[in-house]
Write a structure and sequence with these properties.
Helix 3 (44-59) packs across helix 5 and helix 7 packs parallel to helix 9 (241-253). The chain starts with a helix and ends with a strand. The chain is of the alpha/beta class. It has a single domain (29-285), classed as Acetylglutamate kinase-like (Carbamate kinase), CATH 3.40.1160. It is globular. The protein has helices spanning 3-27, 38-41, 44-59, 71-80, 96-120, 157-164, 187-198, 225-233, 241-253, 269-275, and strands at residues 31-36, 63-68, 87-88, 91-92, 125-129, 136-140, 149-154, 168-172, 174-177, 182-184, 202-207, 222-224, 258-263, 282-285. The protein has ten helices and 14 strands. The strands form three sheets. It has an eight-stranded mixed sheet with strand order 5-8-2-1-11-13-14-12, sandwiched between helices. Strands 7-6-9-10 form a four-stranded mixed sheet.
């Protein structure tokens, strides 16, 4: 690379950092809950980039909270152990044997991979699940689905304690029942419940789609709750996007300032959303 080209790159980098200053100031001290979907985790390189972004957020004063999924990893382990799954209305029935595998994969392999990635970039991440310190107490979501939980009570004190020590919580979506049961929680649902309990500034749902699309197939960058309801009623929002927008609506109506559905496969997606004019994905406000 020629020296002149290198100078241009350095100048561009400096300009980018300078233009981000208002956003650094805007989000200093803010709580940002990030749902990292299993499909969005990608390669080791993608995880390294994500971890570096999270450490940067913490460095400039944001309190990030990572809530992760792990569906593809759970499916792979169930297949490896030859545990067959039953489905009711397209949803997996979580029996006792399946629940053991879910907890092993989410609280073990997946959670620690994310923790290690963040720590290797200079952060101080701590892995936990909704069972720790009574963070999430669940009721059974649907008797037909077995050990699938719906968050009923939240106790986020452990997260505030970690913020005070400049630590980054990484949370597996597993909760406790009122009688000592262990429940699997939909990752988006768990992230939304945690964001509400923390009264977070932002809830970012990192997934494998670009955002909410209109009837013409174009991503809509900003929506109000009424827009989401109208698009759902008309069938424009359909399929797997419905539970994500439902999570977003529940979060913003519960006190979260905004929820953004973001394509987690895009490099530096979190930084693009928080620290640039352009943003990323679809922002939903109350």
């Amino acid at each position: 690379m020629k020296k002149q080209d290198m100078n241009r790159d350095w100048i561009a980098t400096a300009e980018t950092l300078s233009s981000a200053l208002p956003y650094f100031q805007r989000f200093a001290g803010a709580i940002v809950v990030i749902k990292l979907g299993g499909h969005a985790m990608g390669s080791d390189e993608a995880m390294e980039t994500f971890a570096r972004d999270i450490v940067l957020m913490r460095q400039v004063g944001v309190n990030p909270v990572i809530v992760h999924g792990g569906g593809p990893m759970i499916n792979a382990m169930l297949e490896k152990l030859q545990i067959k799954s039953e489905f009711v209305n397209g949803k997996r029935v979580t029996d006792a044997a399946t629940m053991e595998v879910v907890e092993m994969v989410l609280s073990g392999v997946v959670n620690k991979r994310i923790v290690q990635a963040i720590n290797s970039q200079g952060g101080r991440a701590v892995g936990l699940s909704g069972k720790d310190a009574n963070l999430i107490t669940c009721d059974q979501a649907d008797p037909d689905l077995g050990f699938v939980g719906a968050p009923a009570e939240m106790d986020p004190k452990v997260l505030h304690g970690l913020f005070e020590k400049n630590m980054i919580p990484v949370i597996a979506p597993i909760g406790s029942g009122r009688n000592g049961e262990t429940y699997n929680i939909n990752g988006d649902t768990a992230a939304g419940a945690i964001a509400k309990a923390l009264q977070a500034d932002r809830l970012l749902l990192l997934t494998d789609v670009a955002g909410v699309k209109n009837a013409g197939g174009e991503v809509v960058t900003e929506l109000k709750a009424a827009d989401v309801e109208e698009m759902t009623a008309s069938g424009v929002i359909a399929g797997g996007m419905i539970p994500k927008t439902e999570t977003a609506l529940d979060a913003v109506r519960g006190g979260v300032r905004a929820c953004i559905i973001v394509d987690g496969r895009v490099q530096n997606a979190v930084l693009l959303e928080l620290y640039t004019d352009h943003g990323a994905g679809s922002m939903i406000r109350a």
